[in-house]
Automatic annotation (TrEMBL):
The keyword GTP-binding does not apply. Keywords: DNA recombination. It comes from the Bacteria. SUPFAM superfamilies: DNA breaking-rejoining enzymes. One of its GO terms (molecular function) is DNA binding. Coiled coil: none annotated. CDD domains: DNA_BRE_C. PROSITE patterns: TYR_RECOMBINASE (PS51898). Residues 100-272 form the Tyr recombinase domain. This is Tyr recombinase domain-containing protein. It comes from Phytohabitans rumicis. GO terms for biological process: DNA integration; DNA recombination.
Length: 279
């Protein structure tokens, strides 16, 4: 079975899919291959449906898992020399795409989290709340990604975010002054490191964040809700949907002139976000 998964991973890399997508797809396929009675490539639709019906999964989890499986089987049965003769996903209804509602942490939850965090955990929360970064994006950050850029004639503190969600191109974002103060004296290399000093991934961040918030008796708080706080607070400051969309990286800029204007406003917006006394 590993040969099929390895071949699919090679296909995804050749197609330019993001590292995040490839890793998630590979992990999911291996997980399903172990869970199903006869493995992944011999799976019947009812076996896959039964696995997808596992209790406790949220709507986004179910939709994501379905799409990973659909992508694999569509690839495996396509082309002039398909690896498989049939696609069991064609007999399984696609779960609807969930409608997302903003779910930001409260100001009190943000302030409390920052006060209780160790320096590295505090930096992780700041990057989620004051740059709107996802866990996987935080994990990829390097000290070299923080730099001074000139916007017009004015130098601005900026950060480069690698491979956004869905394989989007690298993005340049404003670096809030408090984030800049936290990273400017860090050594070169990964911004966030394991206890052994090595690089981490988004899952590592999420697991440790979960433990941290559980210790604070905040079971409903997770890193993504700090990103929601960022988007909500940025829109409250600027009240410009286009600026907020660019900061959240939901859409690419439409025109060069519009992008230049939004870039200036982005830096101003981020620096005006509310801050809290955490010392």
């Amino acid at each position: 079975m590993s040969a099929y998964i390895d071949a699919h991973v090679t296909h995804l890399r050749a197609a330019g899919r993001s590292t995040r997508t490839i890793i998630a797809r590979q992990k999911l396929l291996k997980r399903v291959d172990v869970a199903l009675p006869y493995g992944l490539v011999r799976a019947a639709p009812d076996e896959i449906e039964q696995w997808l019906a596992t209790p406790g999964w949220g709507r986004w989890t179910l939709h994501t898992y379905y799409m990973h499986l659909f992508g694999f089987f569509t690839w495996a049965t396509a082309g002039r020399r398909p690896m498989l003769s049939w696609n069991p996903m064609l007999d399984i209804p696609r779960p609807p795409v969930p409608k997302s509602m903003p779910d930001p942490v409260t100001d009190d939850q943000l302030a409390r989290s920052l006060r209780a965090a160790c320096p590295q955990q505090r930096l992780i929360i700041m990057l989620a709340a004051y740059a709107g970064l996802r866990a996987s994006e935080i994990a990829q950050l390097d000290r070299q990604d923080f730099r001074i850029l000139r916007i017009g004639d004015v130098p601005k503190r900026a950060m480069v975010v690698r491979e956004g969600k869905g394989g989007k191109r690298d993005a340049v974002l404003p670096a809030h002054s408090k984030i800049w103060a936290m990273v400017k004296n860090l050594p070169d290399g990964p911004l966030i490191r394991s206890a052994a000093g090595g690089p981490v991934d988004g899952h590592w961040l999420a697991v440790r964040a979960r433990r941290f918030f559980d210790r604070l008796k905040m079971p409903d708080v997770h890193l993504q809700r700090f990103r929601h706080w960022f988007v909500t607070a940025a829109h409250a400051v600027e009240e410009d949907v286009l600026v907020t969309q660019h900061l959240a990286r939901h859409e690419d800029p439409r025109t060069t002139s519009g992008y230049a204007l939004v870039t200036r406003q982005m830096f101003s917006t981020v620096e005006r976000l509310p801050t809290f006394d955490i010392d």
